[in-house]
Amino acid sequence: MTSNGSIRWFSQLGMSDAAIAGAKGANLGELTRAGLPVPPGFVITAQAYLKTMELGGLRAELVRSLADAPTDPVALSQLATSVGQRIRDVAIPKEITESILAAYRELGEPAVAVRSSAASEDTSGTSFAGMNESFTNVRDEAELLSCVKDCWASAFGAWAIAYRGSQHVGDEIEGLRLRQDLSHADCCGNEEYRQVIHAPQILDREDADSGKDRRETDAESND
Predict the structure, then answer these.
(1) Which of 1, 81, 122, 160 lies 20 to 30 Å from 209 when distance is taken between CA atoms?
(2) Proportion of the chain in helix, strand, coil states, percent, rounded to 5
(3) What are the extents of the domains in the chain?
(4) What's the rounded Cα separation, in Å, for the pair 101 and 95?
């Protein structure tokens, strides 16, 4: 089973790993290790994100964008659009790309769900519900890597930047650590079950077989 600083499988995670895997990833790890029927998957760690931004020359810029974010809605929207595009344009380092794709191939290259999970999400004092992107029915390697960057970029949407400012969540550790939870999209459970375990959005088999593409926010996936 592939595992390194960029990739951690659910079975290798517990609540002590929340700093690198986020609360959602850590909870999925706890449930997997408890023997509950969690779809197999892995987490792309905070280190992978930070290394990508560092080597892409964006890490310091992203920290500044949070610290100096405007309050004017138009200016904030322009900042979010600009920063998001910069993140989507950055090249993921070769070794991180290879780790992601190797883990995806170990899953059998199925249709998967890709979801964001920031370290500061859903704490006792904050809730980022509806601000980060989720992607379902992701079916090939190129789309997978694109969705990874789209998830990273969603942390810098206008709503997310404004909310961080209002909650005084502006430091890099709390605000920028992201990872993606990937699980088989042809597994399903009832909606209540998915909400309780904070699992990635799971497609019904009919959706997977039909090739239906569903992109949604975290809020939509929890309805």
Answers:
(1) 1
(2) 50, 10, 35
(3) 7-221
(4) 10
Which is higher by pLDDT, 62 or 197? 62
Model confidence pLDDT, tens digit, residues 41-76: 899 988 898 999 999 999 988 888 888 888 899 999
Span 2-12, pLDDT tens digits: 667 899 999 99
Order of strands across the sheet with 133-138? 7-9, 41-44, 181-184, 112-115, 133-138, 214-217
Residue 185's pLDDT is: 56
Instruction: Give, in order, the Cα–Cα distances in Å from 23 to each of 59, 73, 129.
Output: 23, 30, 13
Question: What is the pTM assigned to this prediction?
Answer: 0.76
- Candidates 3.40.630.10, 3.30.1490.20, 2.60.40.10, 3.30.430.20; CATH matching 7-221: 3.30.1490.20
Tell me how far apart the 2 most distant CA atoms of the chain are, in Å. 49
Strands 133-138 and 214-217: antiparallel
Instruction: Report yes or no: 158 and 80 within 8 Å, Cβ to Cβ.
Output: yes
Considering only CA atoms, give the Rg of the chain: 16
Instruction: Indicate if the alpha-carbon torsion angle 91, 130, 220, 45 is positive or negative.
Output: positive
Pairwise CA distance, residues 148 & 181, whole Å = 10
Band (pLDDT 50/70/90 cuts) for residue 21 is confident
